[in-house]
Write a structure and sequence with these properties.
The complex is a heterodimer. Chain A is mainly α. Helices cover 83% and strands 0% of the residues of chain A. Helix content of chain B is 19%, strand content 22%. In chain B, strand 9 and strand 10 form a beta hairpin. Classes of the chains: A mainly alpha, B alpha+beta.
């Protein structure tokens, strides 16, 4: 189904604004003393969780495109990937600013000492590499290797889930739901299953 | 029983407020009879002599016996030596930011969900190596003891802290009345188990094997600083803070201060506390506040004193035994606190 260009532009702008909304909402809460006695930690946790949401959303786009063939899903893939990077970076900034109190020396020692920090930093580093190579120039330069490089996102997902698992305290439920979502998205990449997605679309069309 | 702290270098007992002044203030606040006398007395009293005033703290739904004990309380029996650093947290923060996994894992879950906890009537089983075992109504546990207000620093193992004014009785009092036998070496505490009232206990992904269990060595439990709180900020405990009866051990990490206690047992063997069951490499039996022994996942050298803000994180140095070292360090004289974390 062909879409007018202005609609695609609107859709992309809409996604862009939607990705900013949570940040605005939490800032408003902090400004109005509605974020509890530790607003820095409130931002840290919410932004970190949003980064995971964005990562999972980014990973739904390819299966959704295959399932629906709607171009709208593929045109926001780079944008959502970059938003994931931005949120992950803000998450780290919150940690440095509000938990470590801008003590860079301590950040240095924490990165060496704490496995969950190491894993989180590796995930962020991976996202940064993908972000830096997400432009057309890099795509052209890398050619076929680009696709291989960007499979790194699966490793990043595993690192992020591990980072999350290591801060679970008393109840696994939330982590388990995210892990299930991640596992499902990974399953959809298994070639046999991935090939079935367009067929499912055909069948749905048939029934409709 | 009035508890006097041997070494007042960190803490001192403030002057005891005469009951008449306190009661007259209550009348004054309530707008009841005796307004004139109340005003006169309140006007004469200096700030330090006045009972703690929590004007903006909402009245709870305390039973009559609690109100009677409160009105006869010894106010500010223990206060921080440096009130400029140890500023009391606002009630809204102390009652809105809690770890109470029986009501969920988020910090605001307990405040939102603990309304389902029924705290009246409440009884506590005292058993084990004691002569006076039995089930006791909370009221009967409170009655023989003097109510005191103690303003303690609370240091969470997660590296944040608050200063909170508790209202309650000395733990030693309660244990003494139970008459421990010579076999009693430890005190084991248990929180209520009731999935109907406690939604966190209904989760099938929970890691805690309910009931939540905590423990103290008998000499720790008998220490004058060990406290059983039934109230805070001049009122009864809000449910999310562990109503109607909780432990407060100010030189240990907050998770030792078990909430909503239904059982106190004197035992021979060291109890296996809940967090040690889940992650013994992260949480030990002693859990004394110690800036030199890191949690495996974060440093314990500093803490964020709450409430803080984005522009002032309020990060301060954590003190050995949470600043109560003069009083309690002797309990651990021959121990390696790196292995007994």
């Amino acid at each position: 189904m062909p879409m007018p260009t202005y609609f695609i532009t609107l859709w992309r702008v809409g996604v862009f604004i939607s990705a900013l909304v949570p940040l605005g909402w939490w800032s408003l809460q902090v400004a109005n003393n509605m974020a509890g006695p530790e607003p820095g930690r409130y931002l840290l946790l919410n932004i970190g969780q949003a980064a995971l949401w964005l990562l999972l959303l980014t990973l739904t786009l390819t299966p959704l495109t295959k399932l629906t063939r709607w171009k709208g899903f593929s045109v926001i893939r780079r944008q959502l990937g970059l938003w994931t990077l931005a949120y992950a970076f803000l998450h780290l900034m919150c940690y440095v600013l509000f938990i470590l109190g801008l003590d860079w020396a301590q950040l240095g020692s924490e990165i060496i000492k704490r496995p969950y920090i190491i894993v989180g930093m590796l995930a962020l580093l991976g996202l940064a590499v993908l972000g830096a190579t997400s432009n057309r120039w890099a795509m052209r330069k890398l050619g076929k290797r680009w696709k291989t490089l960007h499979k790194l996102i699966y490793v990043i997902l595993a690192l992020v889930l591990l980072h999350f698992l290591w801060i679970v305290r008393a109840d696994m439920q939330e982590w388990f739901l995210y892990a299930m979502a991640g596992a499902l998205l990974m399953c959809l990449r298994i070639p046999a299953i991935s090939r079935m997605l367009p067929k499912i679309r055909q069948r749905l069309k048939h029934f409709a | 029983m009035l508890i006097k702290i041997a070494k007042p270098s960190d803490l001192h007992e403030s002057e005891v407020t005469p009951e008449s002044i306190y009661l007259s203030r209550r009348r004054f606040m309530g707008g009841l009879a005796g307004l004139g006398a109340g005003l006169a007395l309140a006007g004469n009293a200096t700030a330090q002599e006045q009972p703690s005033d929590y004007a903006d703290v909402p009245e709870g739904d305390a039973p009559e016996w609690f109100k009677a004990k409160r009105d006869a309380a010894e106010w500010q029996a223990i206060v921080p030596s440096d009130p400029s650093q140890d500023k009391m947290a606002p009630f809204a923060d102390a009652s809105g930011y809690n770890n109470f996994f029986e009501f969920g894992t988020g910090k605001s879950d307990p405040a939102r969900k603990a309304g389902s906890l029924i705290t009246q009537p409440w009884s506590v089983v005292i058993d084990g190596e004691v002569n006076n075992a039995g089930r006791f109504a909370l009221e009967d546990i409170a009655k023989p003891s003097q109510f005191e207000e103690r303003i303690y620093r609370l240091r969470c193992v997660e590296a944040w802290s608050m200063v909170i004014p508790w209202l309650g009785i000395s733990l030693a009092d309660v244990i003494q009345r139970a008459e421990p036998t010579s076999k009693a070496k430890y005190v084991r505490f248990e929180t209520l188990v009731d999935p109907e009232q406690m939604p966190g206990q209904r989760s099938s992904f929970g890691l805690i094997d309910w009931p939540y269990v905590e423990g103290l060595r008998l000499d720790e439990a008998m220490h004058p600083l060990s406290f059983l709180a039934m109230g805070m900020y001049g009122r009864e405990l809000p449910n999310q803070n562990g109503a109607p009866l909780r432990l407060v051990v100010p030189w240990k990490y907050g998770f030792k201060s078990i909430k909503s206690i239904v059982r106190i047992s004197l035992v021979e063997e060291e109890p296996l506390n809940s967090w040690q069951q889940i992650a013994a490499n992260e949480y030990g039996f002693y859990a004394n506040v110690n800036p030199e022994v890191d949690h495996p996942r974060w440093s314990q050298a500093t803490e964020r004193r709450l409430p803080n803000s984005l522009f002032n994180t309020n990060i301060i140095d954590t003190r050995m035994f949470n600043g109560y070292g003069d009083e309690v360090a002797s309990l651990y004289a021959d121990m390696d606190l790196r292995t007994h974390y």
